[in-house]
Design brief:
The complex is a heterodimer of chains A (about 300) and B (about 350). With about 300 residues, chain A is mostly helical. Helix content of chain A is about 75%, strand content about 0%. Chain A is globular. Classes of the chains: A mainly alpha (about 300), B mainly alpha (about 350).
Chain lengths: ~300, ~350
């Protein structure tokens, strides 16, 4: 029997739908606007005639970026940092989280505290910067002069993600591990053939978190990479924004498109890869975050 | 005598035979106690693969999380480019005195940054923290799975955009007007509905200190509310439908159901998230502030991290910058421990 909704429930439902719709559209609008403004004519952008749909369509702003070697450079640098950074972080996190999830590990509490403490107390950006400078000297000393590798090895590694993985691994029944060992699996095979497939959604979620934070990384990449040919995309976007919002430089702007359109075009280029991957991995991460969620 | 007492621990009374016999488990326990490190060694040798797996992670954390903490001790030393921290001259608490009590311009600037840090976080707690909970309550009202997925996909999306993209969009959407181009589209909309005057909009919202905090919070909610609701939504859908039915039979309206069914069920999640939030109170995203602020808005926008960045990385006053971060870190840590203790006492829920 279907119960009739009470009036207070009905009102709440209507309010819910309204606010959700408004908020969801507000989340989407800036991106739609960015696309429209990137391909609209200069007059339409500068005099705010673009509200939702493009006006006076031009593709010169995109063409300007695509003809710029620095843009492609920064794109490939970002791909480099994301690819190697995620692999490096996943490797360390999966191995570490697996060991931490074992009850038989001695000093387990101590190792956990070692991780969790970094969430309470981070040294701050200046000491971290000084530490990177010291590391950079060591790296240069052993012949690695490419700053990108320093960024790959030294950045990232969030304790929170390792704890997510550890909690997911703890949820695997120990009987399965014992069965695998009886069948002659080594410790490493247990990890790769049993644990990782069984915690697929958490592993995917954590990989997504690492990947996204690499793709989006800005501050340390700008501090640590001195050669402008090695800057990742985010640094490139920011430098263009600083350049293009400087009124002194913009007085001589006489293109057929607005200077803002170039920034919008860049933003669109930088978020397209995320938008492409997002639907595939979206189904995992709500599940993954809750599976490995905070338990203690 | 001691040896006798020790020996007696081995013996357990056996009711069947009516005599004492050796307890083999106690013998093992006793052996472990006597040769503790030998047994530790044996266990490590037996599971050596686990420890090898731990090593890379430990090294990375040691190098890039713990060594900076050592560098932080530079706040007690006279900064020196060449020497490592251990060999620098001791400066005592002079930087702290300079920052906290000297009363000169620098001290005022530090206190302003500290106050801004606190206020930005506090408003984040006030407005940013409840937003995902409310959103999760709303998601729960949507019965159609497809509609809910659409809402969720759209509201999670901003979380995956970089700070640079988000701040660039913000900068352009509320940018100042000039002779050659109009103001940003959001400023224009605000002028149209009468929220701000034409002159304010033309001057650019990010150039005026009184708008910085609002912009910071609104972009924060825009970015994080949808994604933050995942955890709360999971707690809400775990509530059994029978609880609602029981409340409805007792005549509870929507508000009463919220108060007596939903809230108690998600309280522990809220407490845990609140502690995590308070733990991050003073470590607010410096990247976002750094990308949004400018010299005009230091009054409300400058936070301790950006203060430290200006003096320690752009400038050369590393000791002073480290001292400011040390103060920030210590207060932040006290807040986590305090929040955790209060939560444990009040509701038996704690994170650590």
């Amino acid at each position: 029997m279907k119960r009739k909704l009470e009036i207070s429930e009905l009102i709440f439902k209507i309010i819910s739908y309204m606010i959700l719709t408004v908020f969801a559209l507000a989340c989407l609008y800036p991106f739609v606007y960015a696309v429209s403004a990137a391909i609209s004519s200069r007059h339409a952008v500068e005099y705010a005639q673009v509200i939702l749909f493009p006006k006076g369509v031009q593709f010169d702003a995109f063409a300007r970026m695509f003809n710029n070697n620095m843009f492609w450079n920064s794109y490939s640098n970002t791909l480099f940092l994301t690819f190697y950074g995620t692999i490096w972080e996943m490797l360390l996190s999966i191995l570490g989280a697996y060991a931490l999830s074992k009850k038989r590990l001695l000093f387990r509490k101590g190792f956990n505290f070692f991780l969790v403490f970094t969430m309470w107390f981070a040294a701050g950006i200046v000491p971290q910067y000084l530490n990177y400078l010291a590391t950079k000297r060591i790296f240069n000393g052993i012949g690695i002069t490419d700053d990108k590798w320093l960024v790959v090895l030294a950045m990232g590694m969030a304790a929170m993600n390792i704890i997510l993985l550890r909690n997911a691994f703890e949820g695997v029944p120990s009987e399965i591990e014992e069965a695998a060992i009886v069948d002659g699996a080594t410790e490493f095979q247990v990890l790769t053939k049993v644990y990782v497939p069984m915690c697929k959604s958490t592993v995917a979620t954590v990989a997504l978190f690492f990947g996204i934070s690499r793709w989006n990384g800005y501050f340390w990449a700008r501090q640590m990479i001195s050669d402008s040919n090695e800057h990742p995309l985010q640094v490139f976007i920011r430098l263009r924004l600083e350049e293009f919002t400087d009124p002194d430089q913009m007085t001589g702007w006489n293109e057929t498109y607005a200077s803002d359109s170039v920034i919008y075009a860049l933003i669109v280029c930088s978020i397209v890869p995320i938008l492409v991957i997002y639907p595939f991995i979206q189904k995992y991460f709500a599940k993954g975050t809750n599976e490995g969620g905070v338990k203690e | 005598m001691a040896a006798n007492v020790k020996a007696a621990d081995f013996l357990v009374y056996d009711e069947e035979t009516g005599s004492y016999r050796m307890d083999p488990e106690q013998a093992v326990r006793d052996d472990v106690e006597r040769h503790y490190w030998k047994h530790v060694g044996l266990m490590i040798v037996k599971d050596w693969r686990l420890y090898v797996m731990l090593i890379p992670m430990i090294l990375v954390f040691l190098f890039w999380r713990y060594f900076p903490m050592y560098e932080l001790l530079g706040c007690f030393k006279v900064a020196d480019e060449v020497k490592p921290v251990s060999e620098q001259y001791f400066a005592g608490f002079s930087y702290f005195k300079r920052l906290l009590v000297s009363g000169d311009g620098l001290s005022a600037e530090f206190w302003r940054a500290f106050r801004n840090t606190f206020l930005l976080s506090f408003y984040g707690l006030l407005f940013g923290f409840p937003a995902p909970i409310i959103l999760a309550l709303f998601f729960n009202e949507v019965r159609s799975n497809i509609m809910r997925s659409v809402y969720q996909v759209l509201t999670y999306l901003p979380k995956f955009m970089s700070t640079v993209v988000m701040t660039s969009l913000t900068t352009l959407l509320v940018k100042q007007g000039s002779l050659i181009s109009g103001m940003g589209i959001v400023s224009r909309a605000l002028v149209a509905i009468g929220a701000i005057s034409q002159e304010t909009g033309m001057a650019g919202l990010l150039n005026q200190p009184q708008f910085f905090r609002a912009i910071y919070q609104i972009t924060g909610i825009w970015e994080g509310a949808g994604y933050g609701s995942i955890v709360f939504f999971a707690a809400i859908i775990a509530i059994s439908p029978t609880s609602y039915e029981a409340a409805q039979i007792d005549g509870a309206g929507k508000m009463a159901q919220m108060r007596y069914v939903v809230l108690p069920s998600i309280l522990s999640t809220i407490v845990i998230m609140l502690i995590t939030h308070i733990g991050g109170l003073l470590s607010i995203g410096y990247e976002k502030v750094l990308l949004l602020y400018n010299t005009d808005t230091y009054v409300t926008a400058d936070v301790v991290s950006t203060f430290a960045q200006r003096y320690g990385i752009l400038g050369a006053n590393k000791g002073l910058a480290s001292a400011s971060e040390m103060i920030n870190n210590v207060v932040g840590m006290l807040l986590v421990i305090g929040a955790n203790t209060i939560a444990r006492k009040a509701s038996n829920t704690s994170l650590y």
